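Re: adenosine-5'-diphosphate structure - here you go.
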Amino acid sequence: MADLLVLDDLHVTFHSDTGPVEAVRGLSLAVQRGERVGIVGESGSGKSMTGRAILGLIRPPGEVRAHRLAFDGQDLSHLPERRFRRLRGRRIAMILQDPKYSLNPVMRVGRQIVEAFRTADPALSRRAARDRALAALAAVQIPEADLGRVYDAWPHELSGGMGQRVMIAMMVALGPDLLIADEPTSALDVTVQMQVLAILDDLVRASGMGLMFISHDLNLVAGFCDRVVVMYAGRVMEECRAADLHAARHPYTRGLLAALPSIEGDRGDLPVLQRDPAWREAPP
Ligand SMILES: Nc1ncnc2c1ncn2[C@@H]1O[C@H](COP(=O)(O)OP(=O)(O)O)[C@@H](O)[C@H]1O
Ligand SMILES: [Mg+2]
């Protein structure tokens, strides 16, 4: 099957007064339909900038270069903004860590979802869009009794967990082919986190959506994804089946795994991750 997303030798560079900063340096990866790909790596390794580059959201002085950046066979590397706008939200969607930055603060939640539906389908009546918005909220496990309240709420009135679900409802309501979820559950408590993962999992299974799941939580990714890409300093250090993550060989991945807090609790000092300068240059 053809790849849904192909990144080949992706570079994201920011030009600053002190010279260029390379946030992503030659990253290559692919995502298939119906595949859950986890992207892990310590903070600053270029995970978010990779997601933003795919959506055409890197603004000057940032610059994106790639040997190939293709979505569903379509080259994105020179796509004009007008064409990107047609892809964003409809075919490629992104869920950000903090919904407060993604929802419009001065528009009620229900209205935003309605607008999203009507933008995608201008022929849709208000009434039908409202029904769909309520159904989308119900689909992200918002209890029946709370639906009306959430629909009429302002974004700031929502708890973190509710806000995250509203974001997911809005993004997935449009049925994207590819969803980039950037730390979608890191602000949530464990039970809500599990519910959100179940929703994402349903979407992958039911619609064959490809999922790029960005996280710094190796255990979560190992359990939830099909494949894991380990990033360091803007590159892929290692790639493996999620089920094999705990047996990963690369010293960087081993270091990340060793740094995970143990469930048994107290085990002395946290190990310090020793970074080898050579990792920045040659992939293993
Ligand atoms: N506007 C910017 N100007 C300069 N450097 C930036 C800018 N935005 C991000 N970076 C750099 O890009 C690198 C990767 O960032 P990011 O993709 O957000 O990391 P991650 O999501 O893995 O934590 C970081 O080292 C960060 O300092
Ligand atoms: Mg990030």
